Amino acid sequence: MNALEIKNLSKSFGGVHAVRGASFEIAEGKITALIGPNGAGKTTLFNVVNGFISADEGKVFLHGREVTASPVWERSRLGMSRTFQQSRVFKNLSIRENLALALREDDDKFWKSFLRASSEDGIEEKIKETLSLVELHRDIDTPVTDLSYGQQKLFDLARALLNPHTVLLLDEPVAGLNPVIREKLKDIMKHLKERGETILLIEHDIDFVRAVADWVIVMDQGSVLTEGEPEKAFKDKRVLDAYLGTTAEKSR
Amino acid sequence: MLPYLIQILPYLIHILTFIAIYLIVNLAYAIPVGYTGMLNLGHVGLLAIGAYTSAILITSGYSFWLAFPLAALLSGIAGFLLALPARRIKGDYYALMTLGFVFVVNAILLNWQPLTRGPLGITGIERPEGFISPERYLILTLIVLAATAFFVRRLVNSPFGKALEAVRDDDLVAESLGKPTAKLRVISLSVSAVIVGIAGALLAPFIQFINPQIFSLDLVIWLLAALVVGGLASFPGAIVGTVIIIALFESVRFLPVPLDLVGALRLAVFSIALLAVVLMRPRGILGRAQLE
What we know:
Helix content of chain A is 39%, strand content 23%. Chain A is an alpha/beta fold. A 6-stranded mixed sheet of chain A has the order 6-7-8-3-9-10, sandwiched between helices. A 4-stranded antiparallel sheet of chain A has the order 2-1-4-5, with helices on one face.
């Protein structure tokens, strides 16, 4: 069974058709990259899959279960976990408090939470383990706003990993990062692949995609242009046209 | 010194009881405003519901001990209803809506005369047997305050309390981590409303006379100002802010100024204090978060 299935998804904002009838599948245990030029509809599609934006048409299935109408929090509990293009944090909390929020699954249960206020078994170990995995070496009681941009991207990934999940959605994980952290993230992604994570990522950095992705889906003007293994997809003339604007040039 | 203290003891007991009741209110008020980030201005309406429930039942011959939980229950139900729109309305719009709630409650208190006696208010609200004297009533209030402080402190430090803070800081990220933010907002305000109802149930027999004027816009501003001065999302901040605001309010009484100037002077002192805090410490004296 596929981890994620997108069927005929469409979303418009006024007269702008951001996503038009996009369909694709994400295989379990693979890293799939969603690429395309600016304005291709990748982020909108990502947000529709995650539930931040509702679809006008089409369906989203998570492990065969339809989640099109499910709220964001329910999709998360069903196994979807995501990062953000611009890292978003709970700015008044520490690294520990931020990450513990990702780990806890029943903290909305008022009485249960109230009665076992101090019981946090194993949380600290899990947090430290995951921070070590993403190579973010900071004291966990540091205010999260003390992290640099690059560290916040790593923190964002750690939070998505700690949030109990079966599918990871990564929104431009290396955007704005220096080459050293980019290389570090390549290694982290390879490690995640080895441990069987299912990942859908949006990324503009073709070298990064080439290095980590098993499968590439190319979007242009809201639709899926083509998909396939990275090397094959990057040699596709339609993909080159979409990125380099050859088609647009010809049509002028 | 001692004779002077004995002379002012009744006043001290009165003011301590007053502070204790409003500490209960503001510890509860801090849950939705400071910890959950809901700019709710409707708590005075909830306090009025608690106080009037208690006053009406006691003056109708029912026991204080029956009125007390019923006041909490009715205020809790009102708080739950007030929280429902917070699932969709946020920020300034929610603040305006909840402020409207205070005016609606006030209009009901003024106009439902057979029940509330309208602008005349309700008099003769008896304190419970065993707690009739001011000092004993202070003890009862302090017991309730201690229980409230224990409850609120444990709540805000629990995983549930951290989930509320997540809703305050970024509700979309909280949702993406599996937090049902709408449910968390509703529980936050409802729990707070129950406690405020309890404070109302204590307030009515304390002052033994209530009318709609007590629960007006002025009190809305005082309560919010106390939280802002003390600092949001801070348990000690809620305490410090409330004590400072009441102390400022009361200190004007002792200034050598004509009585008809006391009201205006109180507003001036209060405005300067608020301005000073907002300019010098935008997060309040002990605050960890800022209203946005």
